[in-house]
Specification:
Largest sheet of chain A: 6 strands, mixed
Number of helices of chain B: 0
Number of helices of chain A: 0
Radius of gyration of chain A: 13 Å
Radius of gyration of chain B: 13 Å
Order of helices and strands of chain B: EEEEEEEEEEE
Distance between the termini of chain A: 40 Å
Helix content of chain B: under 10%
Strand content of chain B: over 45%
Largest interface: A-B, 22 and 25 residues
Shape of chain B: globular
Oligomer: heterodimer
Largest sheet of chain B: 7 strands, mixed
Mean pLDDT of chain A: 93
Number of strands of chain B: 11
């Protein structure tokens, strides 16, 4: 009940396109769902996060969609840029413990 | 406001040795958690401390331990190092209580290589 499944493993998108990464969780007790962006040699940086009482949250070009009944959430990156090329991790948790997905390596081609 | 600071950034140890890693949380944050990141296993939760007490523990052997000081700074220790302990060790901090305090920020990590 602790797994978070993330897909796809890798993603190639053209500049200006939409990048979509999906995650599914099992534990209904989770109440915090963040997305992190990680560049090589760096620690994960918090991108955006959502709580289960909200179905969508948007910050700039980044949007989280959350489906509580399906136990799924996704990250949409609008107008993807080459600078967005990084590894993205979804996570789920509560009370200061996070379970991470396996990560998605995003490459945005100019 | 300074972020989460981890030292040392890089270190090389020999099998059987022990290592101590340090973490200074964001000012005002009272919760510190540790994660191990490897290419094979991804990001895995080690443990979490709040007000010097361990509140959560992941599924790691007893060779992995940690502690938190009264100023919220934290250390983690790995004894009897094995080759498989080679990883990026990440410290994260948050305010601590439930709700908005759950926003978790990561440091740059300590790269440990065991030879």
């Amino acid at each position: 009940q602790q797994q978070v499944k993330q897909s796809p493993q890798s993603l190639i998108v053209q500049k200006g396109g939409i990048s979509i990464i999906n995650c599914a969780y099992e534990n209904t007790a989770f109440d915090y769902f963040p997305w992190y962006q990680q560049f090589p040699g760096k620690g994960p940086a918090l991108l955006i996060a959502i709580r289960p009482d909200v179905s969508e949250k948007k910050e700039g070009r980044f949007t989280i969609s959350f489906n509580k009944s399906a136990k799924q959430f996704s990250l949409h990156i609008m107008d993807s840029q080459p600078g967005d090329s990084a590894t993205y991790f979804c996570a789920a948790g509560g009370y200061n413990k996070l379970i991470f997905g396996a990560g998605t390596r995003l490459a945005v081609h100019p | 406001k300074a972020g989460v600071t981890q030292t040392p950034r890089y270190l090389i140890k020999t099998r059987g040795q022990q290592v101590t890693l340090s973490c200074s949380p964001i000012s005002g944050h009272r919760s510190v958690s540790w994660y191990q990141q490897t290419p094979g296993q991804g990001l895995q939760f080690l443990f979490e401390y709040f007000s010097e007490t361990q509140r959560n523990k992941g599924n790691f052997p007893g060779r992995f331990s940690g502690r938190q000081f009264s100023n919220s700074r934290s250390e983690m220790n790995v004894s009897t190092l094995e080759l498989g302990d080679s990883a990026l060790y990440l410290c994260a901090s948050s305010l601590g209580p439930r709700g908005d305090g759950n926003t978790i920020y990561f440091g740059e990590g300590s790269w440990l290589t065991v030879v």
